[in-house]
Amino acid sequence: MLDTVTVPSLRQTGQGRRLAARLRTFGVLPLLLVLLAVALIGSLAMGRYSIGLPDLAATLLPSIFPASAGSDAATFATVVYQVRLPRVLAAVIIGAALAGAGTAYQGVFRNPMVSPDILGASAGAGFGAALAILLSLPGAGVQLFAFAFGIGAVAISWLVSMRFGRGNGVAVVLILSGMVVSTLFTSFLSMTKFVADPDSKLPAITFWLMGSLASVSPRDTLLVGIPVLVCGIPLLLLRWRLNVLSLGEEEARALGVDTRRLRLLVIVLATVMTASSIAVCGMVGWVGLKIPHLSRMLVGPEHGRLLPVALVLGGLYLLLIDDLARNLTSVEIPLGILTSLVGAPFFLWLMAKGRKTWA
Question: What is the pTM of this model?
Answer without folding.
Answer: 0.87
